[in-house]
Amino acid sequence: MSNSHLFLKSGFPRAPLQNGIGRYVCQLQRVTLKFCKNHGSSRGMREFIENHLVDFAKENPGVVVYVKPRRHRGPVLVGEYLNGDREWLNCRNANKDDISKWLQLLKTQNGSSSSLRLRKMWHTDVPSIQGPWTPFTLRAPEANVATYPNADASRPLDVEQSATDKLIELFKQQRLADKNKSTDEVLEEKRAE
């Protein structure tokens, strides 16, 4: 085990400001694109700025975009988030498609994902050797090769009939029994009541 986690901030995982519960708020506040006008490793950054930066700015009006030319330095993307965190990405020799993917990644993060050592809310003396449970842990192997949409996959597995379904079925049986009786028998039953 390395000791690199000792210098990271630690905390419990949580959604920032309950983001996504009411509406989604993009956590990326500003992006700074730093590049050299002449250096070869900044070619992809310059192409992105010339061809795609205006489109990115129009699609994301809540993100402030700064372009900062610097002499004899490598290209860098710096993302600043609402919680005060900064994400720094080196884009040396990256093409314009890679830079657009990195910008998309910065836009979808909340800033604290890579610089936070996650602490758990529980402790156990005997940890599991199988790893954490996921929704795919106990799935049938046939689901790996199935093509979707699949009617069999949406069918519930041997689920017992619910109480509501039982009542509806009893009601239908009672109505069928009433229809099969003659009207004279029904009138006699009503008089007897």
From TrEMBL:
The answer on whether this UniProt entry bears the keyword Manganese reads no
Q: Which UniProt keywords apply?
A: Mitochondrion, Ribonucleoprotein, Ribosomal protein
What GO cellular-component annotations does this UniProt entry give? ribosome
Protein name (database record):
Large ribosomal subunit protein mL43
Which family is annotated?
Belongs to the mitochondrion-specific ribosomal protein mL43 family.
What organism does the UniProt record list as the source? Answer: Bactrocera dorsalis (Oriental fruit fly)
Tell me where in or outside the cell this protein is found: Mitochondrion
- Is the Ribonucleoprotein keyword given for this protein? yes
